[in-house]
Amino acid sequence: MKIIVRNLPRNLTEEELRAMFMAFGRVQSCDLVMDQATGQSKGFGFAQMPLVHEAKAAIKGLNGKDMSGVKIRVKKAEDADK
């Protein structure tokens, strides 16, 4: 299941993002979306978790979590080809 994460701190690394999801199970991939001009994070990213029950646990456990004074938003990513 592909998961989108928004409102991330700009200084969060991909390794830190991966670690957040690994607490709930196996992570297939994890990517922060970067601004090509500045090389800085745009404040959102994606995680891919192969097992649906682990992905749902991650969404439930991380959605609304406070990071640097801001609550992150975590949900299933919509398929772009729909």
Overall description:
There is one protein chain. The protein is of the alpha+beta class and 82 residues long. It has one domain (2-64): Alpha-Beta Plaits. Helix content is 24%, strand content 33%. It is built from two helices and six strands, in the order βαββαβββ. The strands form two sheets. A four-stranded antiparallel β-sheet has the order 2-3-1-6, covered by helices on one side. Strand 4 (66-67) and strand 5 (70-71) form a beta hairpin. The model has no long low-confidence stretch (mean pLDDT 94).
Question: How much helix is in the residues?
Answer: 10-25%
How much β-strand is present in the residues? Answer: 25-35%
Give the low-pLDDT segments: none
| Total DSSP helices | 2
The CATH topology is given as Alpha-Beta Plaits
Which architecture per CATH? Answer: 2-Layer Sandwich
Spatial shape: globular
Biggest β-sheet: count, sense, barrel?
4 strands, antiparallel
The H/E string reads: EHEEHEEE
